[in-house]
Inverse folding.
């Protein structure tokens, strides 16, 4: 029987992605390309396949002019993604609680990491900062 769908992508040799390793478990990656004002940029949140973690909270604090548009699980059958949006003055903050579903089997995963969710940010305000520097990431465990 079929468990889910898998999207294939090139591994770490792919020059088009910038990876930010938050710790031994969570990796954020984004396509490396010029961004125009008003454009939506997708950040990919992955977990190391060797990670024993089955729940974590990810906070994304976006600078003024960067708006969180959408957050969606990459594999809804494996992970539940609950989001809380907040606005901390000049920052918009997304707090996302990710929890592995109790009956989720992950022993079929190949590769160093697998994608858990995708987060879309709209880049309204333009500055010389690179896309990756306009969002601060923080991961917490229960």
């Amino acid at each position: 029987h079929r468990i889910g769908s898998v999207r294939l992508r090139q591994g770490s040799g792919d020059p088009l992605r910038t990876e930010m390793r938050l710790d031994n478990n969570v990796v954020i990656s984004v396509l490396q390309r010029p961004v125009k004002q008003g454009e939506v940029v997708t950040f990919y949140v992955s977990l190391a396949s060797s990670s024993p973690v089955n729940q974590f909270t990810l906070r994304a604090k976006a600078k003024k002019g960067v708006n969180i548009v959408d957050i969606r699980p990459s594999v809804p059958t494996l992970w539940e993604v609950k989001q809380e949006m907040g606005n901390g003055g000049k920052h918009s903050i997304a707090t996302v609680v990710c929890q592995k579903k109790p009956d989720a089997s992950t022993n079929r995963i190949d590769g160093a990491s697998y994608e858990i969710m995708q987060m879309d940010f709209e880049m309204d305000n333009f500055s010389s900062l690179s896309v990756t520097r306009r969002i601060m990431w923080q991961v917490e465990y229960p």
